[in-house]
C-alpha cells in the first residue's frame, strides 16, 4: 500500500506530560544547585589513563541569607570512566573555611540551624551538606560540613565560624 495514498490517520507519539514535567523539574533543580557553587580550582591526586584524574576541587559558596560571607570548601572528586559519566561516588572527606568577604548584612531573621548548601557526591543517595548554626551569645555564625546517605551518613565533618560583631536576628 502506498503511504502517500493511505486514508488511515497517522499515529502520533504517545503523550507523557508527567515525563516532560519531571524532566523540566530535574533540570531546574540541577541548575539551581550548581549555580550557587563557583569552582575556584582543582589539583590532580591520582592519574587515570582513561577518563579524568581523581582530584581535589575547591569551590566557593556565598551564603544566600547573609551577604558578605563566603564559604570555601575543598572536597574529593572521583575521576576515571565512572567519574566521567557521573556514576562514581565521591569520598566523604571535605574541609570548610567561611570568611567575611564584605560588609555583613543579614537579609532576614535566621533559623537557629539551617542547611544552606548541598552538593551531590553520587548519582543517587550521597550528598555533601553545609549547615549554618547561629550562636547569638557569641555573635557568630558557625558553619559545619558533613556527608549523608539515604540510610547512613558519615561522622567525618569540618567546622568554621564567622564572627558577626553585632546581634544576629534569630527566628
Written description of the protein model:
The protein has 171 residues and is mostly beta strands. The protein has one domain (39-163). The protein has helices at residues 17-35, 80-84; strands at 37-46, 54-62, 66-77, 94-106, 113-120, 127-135, 140-148, 157-163. It has a four-stranded antiparallel β-sheet, covered by helices on one side. A hairpin with a 7-residue loop joins strand 1 (37-46) and strand 2 (54-62). It is elongated and about 55 Å long. One of its GO terms (cellular component) is cytosol. InterPro entries: TAT_signal, Uncharacterised_CreA.
Summarize the structure.
By secondary structure, this protein is mostly beta strands. The protein has 2 helices and 8 strands. A 4-stranded antiparallel β-sheet has the order 1-2-3-4, with helices on one face. The protein has a 4-stranded antiparallel β-sheet with strand order 5-6-7-8, with no helix packed on it.
Q: Main traits of this protein?
A:
Uncharacterised_CreA, four-stranded antiparallel β-sheet, TAT_signal, 171 residues, single chain, mainly beta
Are there runs of 5+ residues with pLDDT below 50, and where? 21-35
**Biggest sheet, strands in spatial order?**
1-2-3-4
What proportion of the residues form beta strands (DSSP E)? over 45%
Task: Name the structural class.
Answer: mainly beta
Q: If helices are DSSP runs of H or I spanning 4 or more residues, what is the number of helices?
A: 2
**Shape label:** elongated
Task: Output the helix-strand order.
Answer: HEEEHEEEEE
